[in-house]
């Protein structure tokens, strides 16, 4: 048995959501989201916990969590910058933003800054093409991004 | 004639606080419910059939006949699943409904669930749309609190409806309806093998219908005002309207509700404001990244309806027009899109899993200056190997976009290895 446990509040939330589905299996995504919201990432311990809760094996949870790109399988720091790289964002200036992040924070895609504060991901289309280029900062969308705007956002996080 | 905006689904989008129940009720939301419950479920389905409403998620299949695929009502539970995964590059229309008129979607779910005999509806939304998920959940909570949904619809109709929002985890393939169901069922989002005959979808072995968010949101107007109110818009074979999205360097990128059949160039110029900063139009991917690319010359002939787009060798898809300006390397465009598809292939079928990787590597080789004519032939050949040989239409979509870019802009690829 691993060390991970939901907080009391999350345990209640898990039980509340579980009632909405005909089978407990459907709780795989909601259960992992609750883990990630609580811890910032999904640890092997948490996978064992979810497996126990859903009557699955840990490997089934692992194969599920690794299929979906939004689950962090290691700690990613306080601020997660996700830059959309797909076509409309590319045409509207995403490559310049990527360069700016590298120059300012010293991190490329998949890397975390030395102080552990920023993690940078280059991601596929986020459905914000009309406001391209865009970044998401801890899930919050920031559209019509420019180097000036990004500089301000990074400064506010520091 | 200038292109006219039509306000059916988008009617309330510009009203301040349109997402709140109080404002929504003042502006016509839930007016269709009394009419719906004065009808038999089959009558609603017939009305939707006559309206010619087509699926807005990319496929364009007729909505009413899809509902008819549900088996006759028996003791088994039946489900409505609303597809809000919206992960096709260039597509960002359903989020407008979540943001500006979530109660329209709830109203549509009530009408549609009653028509197909479902009591539980699940709305699957891509995980990245956290903000929109929160907003939709607030609206659903309001609807429960007001007794609009729950044990009785509108506090008076003896029909239970429960709505649950299911947050995805970041996988494009989960927009494919059977992959979406697999995902809710707690599995990897692998599309299912399709049956030979047409039949409904199956959720935990029970009958289910999957419809796109915008499709469901188009139902209340048809129920309330009759199918004729819908067929007066659009073309004979594609009646009604669609939320068309425009992205790239136009002056006014965004989402606009238009009737089917408008000329693409007029829409780009009249509604999109034309190209910005003196740029010239080079190409358009018409309906999300999986539709064959149109050259500037073809854009002049393009009309925004399914049949017209097929006539010029492309598809309407989700109506998300991606505008590409002169000065953009089409090899870079191809690289960008194949990277997307390589990353997002679910990996279940070998032609798709290996083919996307193979094309990705070959285009990178060309960009590095190490390509040859034989590489271009290889790309076309691999496209042929992928097309029609996989469980879902992901691989054919890759073939459509990549082959069209290589064929129409072959000279640009050749320049990379000649210089």
TrEMBL record, chain A:
NCBIfam families: nuoE_fam (TIGR01958). Binds 1 [2Fe-2S] cluster. Its cofactor is [2Fe-2S] cluster. One of its GO terms (molecular function) is metal ion binding. [2Fe-2S] cluster binds at residues 84, 89, 125, 129. It is an enzyme of class 1 (oxidoreductase). Keywords: 2Fe-2S, Iron, Iron-sulfur, Metal-binding, Oxidoreductase. Belongs to the complex I 24 kDa subunit family. This is NAD(P)H-dependent oxidoreductase subunit E. It comes from Halarcobacter bivalviorum. Transmembrane segments: none annotated. Coiled coil: none annotated. Its EC number is 1.6.5.3.
UniProtKB/TrEMBL annotation, chain B:
GO terms for molecular function: 4 iron, 4 sulfur cluster binding; FMN binding; metal ion binding; NADH dehydrogenase (ubiquinone) activity; oxidoreductase activity. The keyword NADP does not apply. Residues 331-376 form the NADH-ubiquinone oxidoreductase 51kDa subunit iron-sulphur binding domain. InterPro entries: NADH-UbQ_OxRdtase_51kDa_CS, Nuo51_FMN-bd, Nuo51_FMN-bd_sf, Nuop51_4Fe4S-bd, Nuop51_4Fe4S-bd_sf, SLBB_dom. Its EC number is 1.6.5.3. Keywords: 4Fe-4S, Iron, Iron-sulfur, Metal-binding, Oxidoreductase. It comes from the Bacteria. NCBIfam families: PRK13596.1 (NF010120). Belongs to the complex I 51 kDa subunit family. This is NADH-quinone oxidoreductase subunit NuoF.
């Amino acid at each position: 048995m691993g060390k991970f446990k939901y907080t009391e509040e999350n345990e209640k939330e898990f039980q509340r959501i579980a009632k909405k589905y005909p089978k407990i299996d459907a709780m795989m995504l909601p259960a992992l989201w609750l883990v990630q919201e609580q811890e910032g990432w999904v640890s092997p311990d948490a996978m064992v916990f979810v497996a126990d809760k859903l009557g699955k094996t840990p490997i089934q949870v692992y194969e599920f969590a690794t299929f979906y790109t939004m689950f962090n399988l290691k700690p990613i720091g306080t601020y997660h910058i996700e830059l959309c790289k797909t076509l409309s964002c590319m045409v509207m200036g995403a490559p310049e933003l990527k360069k700016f992040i590298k120059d300012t924070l010293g991190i490329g895609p998949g890397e975390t800054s030395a102080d552990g504060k920023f993690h940078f991901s280059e991601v596929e289309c986020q459905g914000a093409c009309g406001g391209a280029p865009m970044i998401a900062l801890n899930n919050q969308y920031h559209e019509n991004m420019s180097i000036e705007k990004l500089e301000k956002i990074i400064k506010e996080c520091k | 004639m200038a292109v006219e905006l039509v306000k059916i689904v988008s009617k309330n989008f510009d009203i301040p606080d349109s997402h709140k129940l109080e404002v929504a009720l003042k502006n016509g939301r839930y007016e269709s419910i009394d009419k719906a419950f004065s009808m038999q479920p089959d009558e609603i389905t017939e009305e939707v059939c006559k309206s010619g409403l087509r699926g807005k998620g990319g496929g364009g299949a007729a909505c009413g006949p899809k509902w008819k695929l549900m088996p006759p009502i028996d003791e088994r539970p039946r489900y409505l699943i609303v597809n809000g995964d919206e992960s096709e590059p260039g597509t960002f229309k359903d989020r407008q409904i979540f943001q500006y008129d979530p109660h329209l979607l709830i109203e549509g779910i009530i009408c549609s669930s009653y028509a197909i005999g479902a009591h539980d509806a699940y709305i699957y939304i891509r995980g990245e749309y956290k903000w929109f998920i929160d907003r939709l959940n607030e609206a659903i909570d309001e609807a429960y609190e007001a007794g609009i949904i729950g044990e009785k619809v509108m506090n008076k109709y003896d029909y239970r409806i429960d709505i649950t929002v299911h947050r995805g985890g970041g996988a494009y393939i989960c927009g494919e309806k059977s992959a979406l169901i697999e995902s809710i069922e707690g599995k990897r989002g692998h599309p299912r093998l399709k049956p030979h005959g047409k039949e409904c979808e199956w959720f935990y072995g029970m009958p289910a219908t999957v419809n796109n968010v915008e499709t469901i949101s188009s139902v209340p107007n048809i129920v309330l005002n009759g199918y004729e109110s819908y067929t007066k818009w659009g073309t004979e074979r594609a009646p009604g309207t669609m939320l068309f999205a425009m992205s790239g360097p136009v002056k006014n990128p965004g989402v606009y509700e238009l009737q089917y059949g408008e000329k693409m160039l007029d829409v780009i110029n009249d509604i999109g404001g034309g190209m910005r900063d003196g740029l010239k139009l080079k190409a358009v991917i018409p309906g999300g990244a999986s539709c064959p690319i149109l050259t500037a010359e073809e854009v002049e002939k393009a009309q925004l309806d399914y049949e017209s787009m097929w006539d010029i060798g492309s598809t309407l898809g989700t109506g998300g027009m991606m505008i590409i300006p002169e000065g953009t390397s089409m090899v870079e465009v191809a690289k960008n899109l194949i990277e997307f598809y390589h990353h997002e292939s679910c990996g279940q079928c070998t032609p798709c899993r290996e083919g996307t990787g193979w094309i990705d590597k070959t285009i990178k080789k060309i960009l590095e200056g190490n390509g040859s004519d034989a590489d271009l032939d290889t790309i076309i050949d691999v496209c042929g190997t992928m097309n029609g040989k996989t469980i879902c239409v992901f691989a054919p979509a890759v073939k459509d976009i990549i082959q069209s870019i290589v064929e129409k802009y072959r000279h640009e690829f050749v320049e990379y290895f000649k210089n």
